[in-house]
Each structure stands twice: as structure tokens, then as C-alpha cells.
Amino acid sequence: MVEVTKVHSGGLYETKESYSRLVMVDDWIFMANTAGRNLTTREMSDDPIEQARQAFSNIERALEQVGATLADVVRSHVHIQYQPDAPSVMAFVGEKFKGIDPASTVTCGPLGGPEYKVEIEITAHKGAGAATQNRIRFQL
């Protein structure tokens, strides 16, 4: 029997648009695009690095609800509103994922509004962080 767990953060858009912050199907975890808005105060910085920092905080809090951590992330998709912000945002993201090394995609383009500078979407597998990792160097 498949087990499905849905996590809601109480965000306005989760209710209005009928979606979950995180859905876990057995040990697979799928997280919606997560912005850098503080889920408690509803405040959001204008600084893209601060938005990325808050987005990771929101992601980590959601993962905790299902017994997972950033170490379990196997794929990330980082959306950056303004291309000039990409190098600094990705340097921060690189530090957060250091040693985890998920498959990653970065796109630059319009987000839900001009106030959103960074949004992050992840896929994780509960327990992946504790698994044996084989690293293969791609040969050309």
C-alpha cells in the first residue's frame, strides 16, 4: 500500500491554489517552489541572498516534518528572477548543498511578482543522505 503524506505550511497561496508545500509518496519527497518569505511573519527581504536563506529555512522546516533533511535532496531547481543575481545566489546555494551535490537546474526569468527574487524547488528521497554514495567522473 502506498503511503502519501501532505505537508502544508499555512501559506495563503496553498489554500487559494489548492496545493501542498510538500508531498511525500512512500520515501520520495516532492516540494513545491519555495520562496524566501518568512512563513511566520509573512515578511520578505528585498535581498536575493536573504530570500535564498529564508527559502532554505522554509525547505528545511518542511523536510523536518517528514523526518528528512537537506542531505536527502537528490534534485534542485533554483529559479532566480534577475540574471545578475545568479552568481551570488548560486554561490550561497552551493554552500548549502556542499557535499550533497544534487542534480541541479538553474533558470532565470519571471517569477510570480517583482518582489520574488529567488524560489527553490526540490526533490528528495528520505534516507538518501545516509546511503552509500558512488561518485563517477564523466569521461569524454
Could you characterize the architecture of this molecule?
There is one protein chain. By secondary structure, the chain is an alpha+beta fold. Helix content is 24%, strand content 26%. It has 3 helices and 7 strands, in the order E-H-E-E-E-H-E-H-E-E. Strands 1, 2, 3, 4, 5, 6 and 7 form a 7-stranded mixed beta sheet that branches. Strand 2 and strand 3 form a beta hairpin. Helix 2 packs parallel to helix 3. The protein is globular. The model has no long low-confidence stretch (mean pLDDT 95).
Summarize the structure.
The protein is α+β, with helices and mostly antiparallel strands.
Oligomer: single chain
| Estimated radius of gyration | 15 Å
Number of helices: 3
Q: N- to C-terminal separation?
A: 43 Å
pLDDT < 50 runs, ≥5 residues: none
| Largest sheet properties | 7 strands, mixed
| Secondary-structure-derived class | alpha+beta
> Which word captures the global form?
globular
Determine the mean pLDDT: 95
Note the beta-strand portion.
25-35%
Helix share, percent: 10-25%
Name the helix and strand elements from N-terminus to C-terminus, one letter apiece.
Answer: EHEEEHEHEE
